[in-house]
Automatic annotation (TrEMBL):
The keyword Lipoprotein does not apply. Keywords: Membrane, Transmembrane, Transmembrane helix. The chain crosses the membrane at residues 7-27, 68-101, 113-132, 180-199, 211-228, 248-271, 278-296, 302-320. This is Dolichyl-phosphate-mannose-protein mannosyltransferase. It comes from Kangsaoukella pontilimi.
Length: 384
């Protein structure tokens, strides 16, 4: 037993080391930070520098993002690794927490959670966001980190979901805290809970401790942020106006959604052909449809809005697991790899544009390190 535990620690540490080294290589040699993430970090840097005067320059910066990104700015300055490096480290820590919590829940429910489960969870939650259009550390990534241990719990048979009050509280706080980055994804949790209650024909599961705690965290956040401050509601209106040109009409949105809907139908058929039970099929289907509903609600269908849909499919694949016939797994793997590789290839365009700007600055003999750069923009936030 002691030797097994030691081997488990070695495997876990190996997964963490491999992930960190890969990220350092990727962001040190190939990737710039995603432009949305870089914008948030730049806004946080301005907030840290200006303090209370920041509100005179910025009309929209949700408290959750301000706190998280400001922490990266301050840690980067304190440690000397820089804002980008500190943010990568913080996000990696969040991945570690998510994988660790999922492993503990898995062990307390089905008992089938060893070092392999932890290592695979950690690497999947770390690598796929980086490869899928470079969205590592974006809000959608952080939300997925909160939902992963929740899905691990829901995937367990109802009779095995007795994990103890302490672990439920930890899950509720973690899930609620990550949902603050994009509270719309609470819809996914709500739909899964309603589906599970209908499947079990019991309303009690809706009121599990983790659900109530997560809902309370989100409700308190929205109440303090929006309901108590009319200026914040006005800022959201200004923000929506600024992105109005990017909202897609129904026909365009449906054309983007159609392949995902077809994939969901195919997944149901393959699962049934494999003999999987309806509960696990429906829970995975609801997770996918819920992620799609949130994407549709945002009306822009950016790549990072599609990422939670992909992760819902991957989570569904894992939930079905051994219930699938062996020949189904290569199909699922090929579909996931195709989606990831497609976005990885498209990211080359952004990498080339960043390199083009950097090369132009160097060719002009300019050095911007440590200097203030002003940008004139009509965006509600000081970056565009």
């Amino acid at each position: 037993m002691k030797e097994q535990a030691t081997n488990g620690v070695i495997v876990g540490l190996g997964a963490v080391a491999l992930g960190l080294v890969s990220l350092l290589w990727l962001y040190g040699t190939r990737y710039p930070l995603h432009h949305d993430l870089a914008g948030g970090l730049n806004t946080a840097a301005l907030a840290v520098q200006l303090g209370p005067a920041f509100d005179s320059y910025n009309s929209y910066f949700p408290p959750s993002e301000r706190l998280w990104y400001s922490l990266a700015v301050m840690l980067g300055a304190m440690t000397g690794v820089g804002t980008a490096g500190a943010n990568v480290a913080l996000t990696t820590l969040a991945v570690l927490i998510s994988a660790g919590l999922a492993t503990l829940i898995r062990r307390r429910t089905t008992g089938g959670a060893g070092p392999f489960f932890f290592g695979l969870s950690f690497l999947v939650l770390l690598a796929i966001p980086a490869l899928y259009k470079n969205i590592f550390g974006l809000r959608e990534h952080l939300v997925v980190l909160g939902l992963w241990p929740y899905l691990v719990l829901r995937a367990a048979p109802p009779e095995d979901q007795k994990i103890g009050a302490g672990l439920r509280v930890a899950l509720g706080l973690w899930m609620g805290g990550t949902l603050l980055f994009k509270y719309f994804y609470a819809i996914v949790v709500f739909l899964i809970e309603v589906a599970d209650a209908l499947i079990q024909r019991r309303i009690g599961p809706l009121f599990r401790a983790e659900n109530l705690i997560a809902a309370a965290v989100v409700a308190l956040y929205l109440g303090l942020w929006l309901l108590a401050d009319p200026a914040q509601r006005a800022a959201i209106g200004a923000m929506r106006s600024s992105i109005g040109a990017n909202l897609l009409p129904f026909d365009t949105a449906f054309a983007i959604a159609r392949p995902w809907l077809v994939a969901a139908i195919v997944a149901v058929v393959l699962a049934r052909l494999s003999g999987a039970g309806w509960r696990i099929i429906l829970l995975g289907l609801v997770a996918v449809l819920g992620a799609m509903a949130v994407t549709w609600l945002q009306q822009r269908w950016y790549t990072h809005h599609l990422f939670p849909i992909l992760m819902a499919f991957i989570g569904w694949w894992w939930m079905l697991g051994a219930r699938l016939k062996l020949w189904v797994h290569p199909i699922a793997a090929a579909a996931a790899l195709f989606a990831i590789e497609d976005q990885y290839s498209r990211n080359n365009w952004y990498v080339a544009r960043v390199a083009e700007v950097s090369e132009a600055i160097e060719a002009a003999g300019l050095d911007l390190d440590g200097k203030r750069v002003g940008v004139l923009t009509m965006h509600p936030s000081p970056y565009n």
